[in-house]
Design brief:
Helix content: 10-25%
InterPro entries: DUF2125 (IPR018666)
Strand content: 35-45%
Keywords: Membrane, Transmembrane, Transmembrane helix
Protein name: DUF2125 domain-containing protein
Structural class: alpha+beta
Number of domains: 3
Length: about 375
Amino acid sequence: MERPTHGGPAGGTPQGKGTGGGPGLRLGLFAPFALLVLLALAWSAGWFWLRGKAEAEIDGWLSREARAGRQWTCADRALTGFPFRFELRCTSLGFARSDVRFTTGPLVAVAQVYQPRHVILEATGPFRVQQGDLDGNVTWSQLEASLHVTGDGFQRASLVADGLKGRVTGADPSPIDFTVGHLELHARPTPGRFATDGAVDLSARVQRAGLPLLDPVLGGTEPADIALDATVTRATGFRTRPLAQELERWREAGGAVEIASLAAEKGSRRLRAQGLLALDDQHRPTGQFDVRTAGLEQVIAPLISEQIGARLGGDGAALIGNIVGQFLGGRRKEPAPGQAQDGQDRPGEPPLKVLPTVRLTGGRVIVGPFAVPNVRLQPVY
């Protein structure tokens, strides 16, 4: 007696277990894709919500600035960058206040969604500025800036530009032309002094700078390289008020520029300086500097000896010129044992010499006991 068989035909598969799997298995295959779609929809909704919030913040800031007498204009403003960043674009940017106005070409400011407090800015010239009778026009081949802020304020600001060319008209003499091959500016809160002194560290690097107005005085047409490291105290109170008001607030607060290092080179002429710079009660620069030079004593000495010698007359002029020249020539500053030369003795270049202390006081420039003639420091504002 044969035992009954179960299942399908010989060689077949059991019922209910086909090769396509059940409905639950097929739905499981699509679950990751459904989750990805939901995340994309949520991200898109969040990005557009943040963009709307940013637009409202921008409008509110522009309104507050306008009520304070500062008019900002972002032509054809657009906020794009979906999905991972925000890009604020202006076909031109303008600013107008009672004392100054400026415009620049197309501008774009970029911030990543995951790092919204770090803004990168790119601008295209020309930059045109007008203040009183002065008009400035500057172009460049490339310009980038960045600003990193936190809840405690800015952490770092930088600007880098190449191929700068500019002209200022309305000054005396006029026009003033200048060129800069490369420019870098950096600022950060001074560690340990920002909260107490409102101190900000500044670092500037200027390469291949040309200012034809000064070439006859300095005796050469070579481009100049300048490096500056300084600290500005009482800088946290700066706002976008008129310049005269800002500087007066800074002066009354006891603000000063502490120059840790100033290095300038123009051909064979070199200068190293450090000191303190501020404004006196007549709004003129005041301060004191320790200076080392190579080649510039031949520029300074004739200025002083000419006036002193003219008062003496006759052979006294030559004698005074010789004395002043030797006095300003100073002596070579020898490094301490094991101390680096710091670029003082380059092959084929004259050594740096220590000048007498340079002081800015009462509107005069005084080198040692001698006042530089025909040089009067005018009020800054």
